Amino acid sequence: MILKKMTKLNFTLERLMRRKNDLQLYKTIPKKPRLLKVAELIKRTLAEIFVSQNFTDYDGKSFLIFIRDVELSKDAKIATVFLKNFSNQNNVDEESIIDAVEKNLLRIKKEFSKKIELRYTPKLRFRMDFKKEKNLGIN
To answer: Model confidence over 90-129: pLDDT tens digits?
Structure first.
């Protein structure tokens, strides 16, 4: 009887170890088509709003903001928008871009909620895109 319990214990431990080492756990989860469509809709809507807005830095120079990517939460209620300075002529630092967006945040959110056609308007988070720039090797 003791031998039988040991084999069951060994069997369950072996199964657990197999599960932990299974490569299926480490594969990236593909995004759902609906989330991709919603992310693209958010990206287009924000692009229209950013083109109509006039963003300026501390010196009064105007610049354009490029939306690199939009990542959504699983329930599509939080959208993280990755931004990048569009023109390389203006050496605008990332802080002034985020400050310009935060200064116009109420106007951006108001226009966004009017233009977007979703049941729930996602909460917008704006971030600068450092990670992807380094991976691509862009200066």
So the answer is: 566 777 788 888 888 999 999 999 999 888 899 999 988 7
Q: Which residue has the tokens 């300026």?
A: 56
Query: Which two structure tokens, joined as six digits, stand for 12?
Result: 């369950």
Query: Which stretches does DSSP call E strand in 73-133?
Result: 78-85, 123-128
CATH topology of domain 33-136: GMP Synthetase; Chain A, domain 3 (3.30.300)
Q: How far apart are CA 85 and CA 64, in angstroms?
A: 6
Predicted structure pTM score: 0.68
Domain residue ranges of the chain, discontinuous segments joined by +: 33-136
**Contact present, 57 and 101 (Cβ < 8 Å):** no
Question: From CA 62, how far away is CA 92, in angstroms rounded?
Answer: 10
Report which of 87, 78, 70, 62 is spatially closest to residue 123, judged by C-alpha positions: 78
β-pair partners for 79: 72, 124
Number of Cβ within 10 Å of residue 66's Cβ equals 15
